[in-house]
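Reminder: ligand-aware prediction takes two inputs, not one.
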Amino acid sequence: MNKPLAEYSAEELAALSGALQREYELLAGNRLALDLSRGKPAADQLSLSDGLENMIAGNYTAADGTDTRNYGQLRGLPEARELGAEILQVPAEHVIAGGNSSLNLMHLVVSTALSKGLWGDSRAWRNSPQPAILTPVPGYDRHFTLTEAMAIGMVHVGMTADGPDLDQARELAAADANIKGIWCVPKYSNPTGCVYADPVVEGLARLCNDAAADDFVVLWDNAYAVHDLHFPPLQLASIHAAAEQAGTLDHVVQFGSTSKITFAGGGLAFVAGSQRVLTQLERQLSFMTIGADKVNQLRHARFLRGRLEAHMQAHAELLRPKFALVIDTLRRELQALDIATWTEPQGGYFVSLDLRPGLASEVVSLAKAVGLSLTPAGATYPRGEDPEDRNVRIAPTFAGLNELEAAMQVLTLCVKLATVRQQNSA
Ligand SMILES: Cc1ncc(COP(=O)(O)O)c(C=O)c1O
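Here is what comes back for the chain with pyridoxal-5'-phosphate:
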């Protein structure tokens, strides 16, 4: 029936409930093993970067004459920093090219801000009784776990289609000097897929001026900077330019990596900031390593420089049908019933599905019982606690199209079944 579930009569609801229950029981007999929880590239995407292997071919010498086989260059090879600059859209002298994980660099920045400060003066978050970071929700679970692991508090900020609720962020930061920063995934945000609007980028660049703390930092995790599904790509406003103009560059630190460009876990990570901040980070890094893997830096620079967009277009060719299948299934199965909303991102790795309050854990359990693994309910909220228990993150990239199609049928069936049961018992 093609109408909102709220308009169903008691008889219609009972008939639908019975039909869905039968469909669900049939599925249970199928011994499915489906997975929509893996936010990682599929093998065909990884194969796009197999050419990395041929990039050295005995020539280990970087453009500036550096022998990449040897120690040194803590800020990274110049051509790797150039690559980071191209991805993050900042000048190369503001970039450190590091090892294989941007999460690792986020850990470095947060731990440095906490224990020593980022500016080489007396400011450090540990001087405050209860340092906390603003966490736009839903958001990226590893930002939350990293923050929690350092015993730093988390304060929710709502997400809008244009990015974090800036008024709320300003109000919270202005009211409490314990609030030391904000996590941001500005392009194709994890999990909503939104791209921060220009005024939000501008406002975030100035947020440290509104904050009560004098050591406030915008943690700008641009993990999906070039992960567009359509070309020409959507342009994110430059927070680097906005911060330079506002005189706040010391309070914006950016991150990126090639994890979902080349090999996940086998690529390069970048951190960008003011010279003052980079100096402190370099100092901290020097206690941890004599330098990153420059051979891999050289390999990546040779492989990607001058062809980054073409490479990302090849990823998009593989990913567009997957995102289209997810969106088409959600529309076909759920739209008319008016029982859920979802995002339709133009890039990145996720689709965010919002159900009626109280149903996310129920849907995840129903799906699990018939062989579909989903990201745990609540994972997109700090401490795994979604206050309304309604958000489900869909990760369409890793599964093949056939698996994805079957998984989306199961997911939408579970959403319908759980919603009808809830409405029946209301
Ligand atoms: C927003 C975001 N940041 C960072 C990462 C991890 O990046 P890396 O592999 O560079 O540590 C991910 C991976 O899913 C992510 O979604």
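The chain has 14 helices and 13 strands. Residues 39, 101-103, 140, 185, 190, 221, 223, 257, 259, 269 surround pyridoxal-5'-phosphate (CB under 6 Å). We will return to this case in the review session.
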